[in-house]
């Protein structure tokens, strides 16, 4: 059988989408997607706490959202430049990096925010989602350590644990009535 037609038959078994896609998977419209945060508001809120470097702000936002939101340098740095052009923040070279701080007008705008912008991200995602990123990071670290330092027997046992976890996770979805 031709490879393409075999692939179509495999997808047909999953409603034409294939495993992991469709209305509830990565490729569909019904899946939960983390909403993007307001970079401008987040920068002002962070700088209301203390002066920071751009990369430090990115790390801080990722940390405060449990890994759910990590704004890209391509959104943070232009926003910093815009805020500086508007006179809301100022930046000065310090140890080869640009350290940003709030101007008085920026402080007024930051204080007008009722809740921190990163709180919206974590509230919308739900409590469990905020912990997934950290848990996945710790799991990957453990897997790397077993693969690097474990004996062949330990590696085989670790693979069994991983495969069992995958089956159990799919079992959770199979029990879901929604």
Number of domains: 3
CATH homolog superfamily of the largest domain: Winged helix-like DNA-binding domain superfamily/Winged helix DNA-binding domain
* Largest pleated sheet: 3 strands, antiparallel
> How helical, in percent, are the residues?
55-70%
Integer average pLDDT: 78
Going by helix content, strand content and strand pairing, the class is mainly alpha
Radius of gyration: 23 Å
Figure out the total of helices: 8
CATH architecture of the largest domain: Orthogonal Bundle
Task: Please report the distance between the alpha carbons of the first and last residues.
Answer: 37 Å
Low-confidence stretches: 3-35
Query: CATH class of the largest domain, please?
Result: Mainly Alpha
Q: Give the SSE string.
A: HHEHHEEHHHH
What is the fold-level CATH name, i.e. the topology of the largest domain? Arc Repressor Mutant, subunit A
Q: What is the topology, as strand order, of the major beta sheet?
A: 1-3-2
Shape: elongated
Q: In percent terms, what proportion of residues is strand?
A: 5-15%
**What's the total number of strands?**
3
Write structural notes for this entry.
The chain is mainly α and 178 residues long. It has three domains: 1-31, no CATH class; 39-125, Arc Repressor Mutant, subunit A (Orthogonal Bundle); 126-178. The chain has helices spanning 3-12, 39-49, 54-64, 73-85, 104-111, 117-125, 127-149, 152-175; strands at residues 52-53, 89-94, 97-102. The chain has a three-stranded antiparallel β-sheet. The protein starts with a helix and ends with a helix.
